[in-house]
Amino acid sequence: MIGESLHVSPPVFAPMRPRALVVDQDRMDLHAYADVLRNLGFEVNPFGNCREALRWLDEASVDFVFVSQGVGAPDWREVVERTVARDRHTPVVVTTRKLDVGCYLEAMYLGATDYVEKPLPPAQIERLVTTFLRPHAAKRTQSA
Q1: What domains can you pick out in the chain, each with its CATH number?
Q2: Structure pTM?
Q3: Average pLDDT over residues 11-38
């Protein structure tokens, strides 16, 4: 036994990292959100258009969503609707370059959690995630 190296195997049932979906055609915003979310411990799935994001969403579960209103005419709406239809407790934040009351009301009607103006500084991204994810995580454990 002398000279043998001991190593610890990773646990068989390691806790899964939460998944975030980020949809924004502005590459700078896409990378900024993804970086902050990764630093918060998320597995991030960034997409530059809604069609790709919707295909991914058909295959995977998600714990948090940022979707830009400017990504594609009606497509951002479908991202919100599909996410909420799968799990109404999943936080969905719609981002926009220009706040508009009508668009805000539409986003809320579709089930979005918040509607915010871009660009979002890292501290605001973190605040949104920590504000909305905790209630979501609690609801998930209660329903399990």
Answers
A1: 19-143 (3.40.50.2300)
A2: 0.81
A3: 85
